[in-house]
Specification:
This is DUF4249 domain-containing protein. Pfam families: DUF4249. InterPro entries: DUF4249. It comes from Hymenobacter volaticus. It is a single chain. The chain is mainly β. It folds into two domains: about 140 residues, no CATH class; about 130 residues, no CATH class. About 10% of the residues lie in helices and about 35% in strands. The N terminus is likely disordered.
Length: about 325
């Protein structure tokens, strides 16, 4: 009983103090240019941009931690990628984001998304510098060296009955193994997609959470797992630090979803391949995605441990990352 009385007294004091007004000094803030962009060894044509939306260039401006409005992108930035000789190899223009009923060429003053204009693809082992500027803020810069591609030893897909009647594609078990290079520190992200019989993009691969795959929790950075190419907050990078030089395996229960126009009676073209994409990413991209996952895991909890985001932009915030993609096609 004494414990209960003590608890009630403490609760009364605690909730009674909720009405106390405390003046907090606003921390000083200098607006900085912020951006995210991932350079790939793939030519960034339209189909690539639609699938790898999380890699696209996004530009905004930082704001104070006490600012209540949602941050907005900006369309007035000048962004370039330069090679080792200082030559400009890529430039960007503002565009409307896919999914907002705007065509790809329309100028976008709200969302801050950009598309490349030269369709440049980075080369493994080569060094590139990103430079960006915009009115009212200092220019930013970051440099990276494109990683070498992964060695996919094998990949397989075993179909099974869908776990849900709403699955309109195929379902099954996807596995993949990578032979890791013991001489280097490597960082990987894995994706998968479906192609039609002619090799054109057909649809997406989704994790089947209705099945008990026995592979542990949904998000586990100690093992290689599938990431979602269109969502920045669904990137699950893997480091070979605990398996350097060993075989790295991916295994997941999946289902596929058609990403096109349906015909009469809901008909859709037949899928031809599942394509596994293993991306070797730069160490900075790995650190950024790890920090972003930790930040998202706080769920806006004010009592959570601080989860600052990693940045490699000098005089700004964000990430200039590199990804070298290797593909493995599995016939269906």
């Amino acid at each position: 009983m004494k414990k209960i009385v003590a608890f009630l007294c403490f609760a009364t004091l605690m909730f009674g103090s909720c009405e106390t007004i405390v003046d907090v000094d606003t921390p000083p803030h200098t607006p900085r240019l912020t951006l995210t962009y991932t350079l790939s060894n793939q030519v960034p044509i339209t189909n690539y941009q639609k699938f790898f939306q999380a890699r696209g260039l996004f530009v905004s401006t930082s704001q104070s931690v006490l600012e209540l409005k949602n941050p907005e992108g900006r369309k007035d930035a000048t962004v370039q990628v330069l090679d080792e000789t200082g030559q400009v190899v890529e430039q960007f223009r503002s565009r409307a984001r896919y999914g907002y009923n705007n065509n790809a060429g329309q100028q976008d003053s709200i969302y801050g998304h950009y598309v490349p204009t030269r369709n440049f693809a980075g080369e493994p082992g080569h060094t590139y510098t990103l430079r960006a500027s915009a009115p009212g803020v200092e220019a930013v810069e970051a440099t990276l060296t494109m990683p070498e591609g992964a060695t996919i030893e094998t990949a397989s897909y075993v179909p099974s009955a869908p776990s849900s009647p709403y699955v309109r594609g195929t379902a099954g078990r996807l596995t993949c193994s990578i032979l890791d290079n013991a001489a280097t520190a490597d960082y990987y992200v894995a994706y998968a997609r479906v192609l039609d019989r002619s090799g054109q993009y057909w649809g997406r691969v989704r994790i089947d959470h209705n099945r008990n795959s026995g592979s542990g929790p949904e998000i586990n950075l100690s093992r290689l797992q599938l990431s979602e190419s269109s969502e920045m907050h669904s990137q699950y990078p893997f480091s070979d630090v605990i398996g350097n030089g060993q075989r790295i395996s991916l295994s997941a229960d999946i289902y596929t979803t058609y990403d096109g126009s349906y015909g009469a009676g809901g008909a859709y073209p037949e899928p031809g391949y599942i394509e596994v994409i293993v991306s070797s990413i730069t160490s900075d991209a790995y650190k950024f995605n790890q920090s972003l996952n930790r930040y998202n895991d706080t769920d806006d909890n004010p009592f959570a441990e601080p989860a600052p985001l990693f940045s490699n932009l000098r005089l700004g915030y964000g990430i200039f990352g590199g990804a070298t993609d290797v593909m493995y096609r599995i016939p269906l």
